Design the sequence.
């Protein structure tokens, strides 16, 4: 009988390999770090329970941000949806809520994301294609019609125009007669990751950061249940970075936002209590679980040690998870149901607060109603039939999970130190550091797929040449023309004098240092459009110019 891991590896495992060789030359996580064949007490020799884990709801929150976790309340089932015009998306939201969805998540079309109205010539062909088209309060009213904004939380995936969409949502809630301290949800508004990986930016960084800090301050005073920013690693992961890079680059951005807010005179414990984070969940199961646990622990320490936080809520990394869009395949789409199920399981075991499960056909198009329902059922089956929500952090104490959590923590901290040495996330972005790292990781992953050292079932192995065609959802091709006609009627119906007065007030405020949120709300309540508001700000601030990195 072996007395320790070293002895077992030498005397038992290595001899077994002589007869049965290992399947791969290297077993590794997404960063390329080696995975050992077995983990035991030796791998946690200096490990301290209270330092590394503690208890749920207590610092460093590795085991969960809430003391009861899912025994008290399940994660929010928040399916991402939006297409066509506001009325069509409103019907999809109502359908999903009727099927048991517990929170809304809104996808906006590209024109809305980059600050153009649906009838602008520059956006022809893009209206309503990858999300819902929102140009004015009239559209937001239609989007939220008959939805109980004081009872359901809403996440809005929007970036450069995040403050504008929040202002529109606030204006719509006021029209419904809903008190602002009753509305809840999250606005993504994470502009730094746009400069890194996604590209739907408008304004230079300093002005985007001003919009963010204005939003933080206003929400704390007026809408305390609304998370002012969802700091997103998801899109960087989708662009090709590793799990460790996803967390590191996201937390570096969170530090940058926090520094900007502190410099603007805001209190860390106040604004950070309204932070949320947004992660992807890919398919290396235990790595994803460990990633979530490491992220919680690192953020808690950043808050406490770097920003002198005294508030447990500000130290909590509260997060939403979406299963990996980049892992979905156009081939054998039914396989995506299985992928999504495993990814959702690792997100729940990692302690997510809310979850979107991708539909099987999202690699091809906006999901059909049937696919969206099946994706929601995936979450419901996990919640109600598997028993995984009955025990808090059931993987805690696993030699492998704890060792892997520590490994990822070290990798993440190494990246954070490099970015700090450069002068922070914004400077690192300007030098192309994160962009180059993501490009390199994406290249390595694609090379692995092409060489078949990484198997993607149905794509580079186990291929079905006789695969039947897939029925997909198609947005009405006349949506662009429909929206132009809607906008014509809308523009004729409003009082342009009120619009011009409100836009002039916004211009003066933007040229000064006042908080812009009240002026944005007033502009939209006068029925100014997103395009008109953004044009005012473009004329004052200009536009961001990307530093292309190759």
Sequence:
């Amino acid at each position: 009988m072996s007395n320790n891991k070293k002895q077992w590896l030498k005397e038992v495992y290595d001899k077994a390999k002589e007869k049965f060789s290992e399947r791969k030359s290297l077993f590794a996580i997404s960063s390329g770090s080696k995975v050992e064949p077995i983990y035991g007490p030796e791998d946690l020799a200096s490990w301290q329970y209270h330092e590394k884990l503690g208890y749920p709801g207590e610092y460093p929150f590795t085991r969960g941000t809430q003391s009861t976790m899912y025994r008290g309340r399940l994660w929010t089932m928040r399916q991402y949806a939006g297409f066509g015009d506001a009325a069509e998306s409103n019907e999809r939201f109502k359908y999903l809520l009727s099927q048991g969805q517990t929170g809304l998540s809104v996808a906006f079309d590209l024109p809305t994301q980059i600050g153009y109205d649906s009838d602008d010539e520059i956006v022809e062909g893009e209206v309503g294609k990858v999300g819902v088209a929102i140009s004015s309060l009239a559209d937001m009213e239609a989007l939220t019609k008959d939805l109980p904004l004081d009872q359901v939380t809403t996440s809005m995936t929007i970036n450069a125009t995040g403050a504008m969409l929040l202002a529109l949502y606030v204006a719509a809630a006021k029209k419904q007669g809903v008190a602002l301290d009753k509305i809840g949800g999250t606005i993504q508004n994470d502009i730094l990751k746009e400069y890194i990986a996604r590209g739907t930016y408008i304004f230079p960084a300093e002005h985007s950061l001003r919009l963010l800090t204005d939003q933080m301050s206003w929400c704390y005073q007026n809408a305390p249940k609304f998370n002012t920013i969802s700091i997103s690693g998801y899109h960087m992961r989708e662009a090709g970075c590793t799990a460790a890079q996803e967390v590191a680059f996201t937390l570096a951005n969170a530090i940058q936002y926090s520094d900007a807010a502190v410099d603007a005179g805001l209190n860390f414990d106040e604004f950070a209590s309204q932070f949320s984070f947004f992660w992807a969940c890919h398919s290396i199961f235990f790595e994803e679980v460990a990633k979530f646990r490491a992220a919680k622990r690192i953020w808690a320490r950043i808050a406490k040690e770097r920003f002198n936080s005294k508030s447990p809520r500000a130290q909590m990394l509260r997060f939403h998870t979406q299963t990996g869009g980049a892992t979905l395949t156009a081939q054998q789409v039914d396989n995506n149901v299985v992928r999504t199920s495993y990814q959702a399981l690792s997100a729940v075991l990692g302690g997510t607060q809310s979850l979107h499960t991708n539909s099987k056909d999202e690699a091809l198009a906006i999901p059909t109603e049937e696919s969206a329902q099946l994706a929601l059922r995936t979450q419901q089956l996990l919640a109600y039939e598997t028993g995984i929500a009955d025990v808090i952090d059931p993987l805690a104490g696993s030699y492998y999970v704890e060792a892997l959590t520590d490994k990822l923590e070290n990798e993440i901290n190494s990246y954070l130190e490099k970015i700090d040495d450069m002068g922070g996330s914004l400077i690192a972005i300007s030098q192309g550091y994160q962009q180059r790292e993501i490009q390199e990781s994406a290249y390595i992953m694609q090379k692995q797929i092409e060489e078949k050292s990484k198997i993607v079932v149905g794509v580079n192995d186990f291929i079905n040449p006789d695969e039947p065609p897939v029925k997909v959802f198609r947005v009405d091709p006349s949506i662009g023309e429909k929206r132009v006609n809607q906008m014509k009627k809308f523009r004729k119906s409003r009082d342009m004098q009120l619009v011009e007065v409100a836009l002039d007030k916004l211009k003066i405020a933007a040229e000064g240092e006042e908080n812009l949120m009240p002026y944005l709300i007033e502009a939209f309540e006068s029925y100014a459009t997103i395009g008109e508001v953004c044009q005012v700000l473009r004329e004052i601030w200009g536009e961001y110019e990307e530093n292309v990195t190759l």
